[in-house]
Amino acid sequence: MILDVDKFISREKRVWSELERMLDDIARGSIERLSLDRIKRLSYLQSKVSEDLVRISTFSGEVELRRYLENLVARAYSLTHSRSRGVFPSVRPGELAKAALHWFSVTFPIVFRRNAASFAVSALVTVFGVVFGGVAVMVDGDAKEAIFPSGRFSHLRQSPEDRVNREEHSKRDRLKGAHSLFASQLMVNNISVSIKAMCLGITWGVGTILILFYNGVILGGVAFDYILSGQTAFLFGWLLPHGSIEIPAILIAGQTGLILGNCILRPRGKTRRERLKAKSGDIATLIGGVAVMLVWAGLVESFFSQYHEPVLPYAVKIVFGTIELTALVVFLKYAGTSRSRESSKRFIRTPQAHKPME
């Protein structure tokens, strides 16, 4: 291969100089973090200089130029792969916590609002289930045997009067020393139900709808059973503290499953794979937020909801649950809105945000 060295140097010198300036800035500490565009640019420059080094290596007479390019490539490699001082430094615990907080407090509610239609469908299906379960208990006193299966829900089969009397007059703390274990069991169970509701969206959303409807049936059956028995205060004092977070979390899990089902049913001009890939970030964010919510709900149910009068007045528990629900509604409706507006304004004002680098 014949190479005109002078033309080669004249053509490529600008690239070498740009890489050298960037490496100098990084070494001096004037750049603490590189943006994604500059990281891509650095990768391109490093690759280009490496190619030039290979080309010039065949010319034994260009020793100084070869050493200069070797030094550039070595510096770029050292800075981009150094654990203590590199373009990709190790994440500090404080930075990781800050990123996680931003994800939950900003990204999660924004994604929730972006897919509000799926949440509305999830809530509507659950309401139908609540009505069905309530009517079943009102019409047939034996419906509880069918609605509440044996095992985890067997305690719901007993009469509300018997349970309230037993809870209010109990002389011992049945969860003493076992709160953490009970909370972890609740978290695992509820998170597994949520993941099932999400994953069954792959059945064109049918499986998700069935889970939402059945959960609504159980909720409606319990609520109407206690209300008809005159135990409304106990019902709200028992369910509101944890249910104000747990029930919306299940609805959001259903929302996630319906998003998944919609990607399969309505690719909107794309392949199903492309549609799923485009929505994968939203799905992961929503189910991650659900997990966080259910961890809190499990702690509240174990350490707070299971205690009734005279230990904890029902009014206190109802107020606590109402505050939780109000805070959640405000959070999901408004959190992150200022960030979204700022981003929109920046985009509108600077339509050519990505200028070519000099």
Topology:
Elements: H1 5-28, H2 36-56, H3 63-81, H4 93-114, H5 116-139, H6 143-147, H7 160-168, H8 179-199, H9 206-228, H10 232-265, H11 272-305, H12 314-334, H13 337-349
Helix pairs in contact: 1-2, 1-3, 2-3, 4-11, 4-12, 5-9, 5-10, 8-9, 8-10, 8-11, 9-10, 10-11, 10-12
Number of helices: 13
Any idea what the shape is? elongated
Order of helices and strands: HHHHHHHHHHHHH
Q: Let me know the number of strands.
A: 0
**Biggest sheet character:** none
Strand content: under 5%
Average of pLDDT = 84
What is the rounded distance between the termini? 30 Å
Number of domains: 2
Radius of gyration: 30 Å
- Unreliable runs, pLDDT <50, ≥5 residues? 83-89, 343-358
Helix content: over 70%
Name the structural class.
Answer: mainly alpha
Could you walk me through the main structural features you see in this protein, from its secondary elements to its overall organization?
- Residues about 85-90 and about 345-358 have low confidence and may be disordered.
- By secondary structure, the chain is mainly α.
- It folds into two domains: about 5-80, no CATH class; about 95-345, no CATH class.
- About 75% of the residues lie in helices and about 0% in strands.
- It has 13 helices and no strands.
- It has helices at about 5-30, 35-55, 65-80, 95-115, 115-140, 145, 160-170, 180-200, 205-230, 230-265, 270-305, 315-335, 335-350.
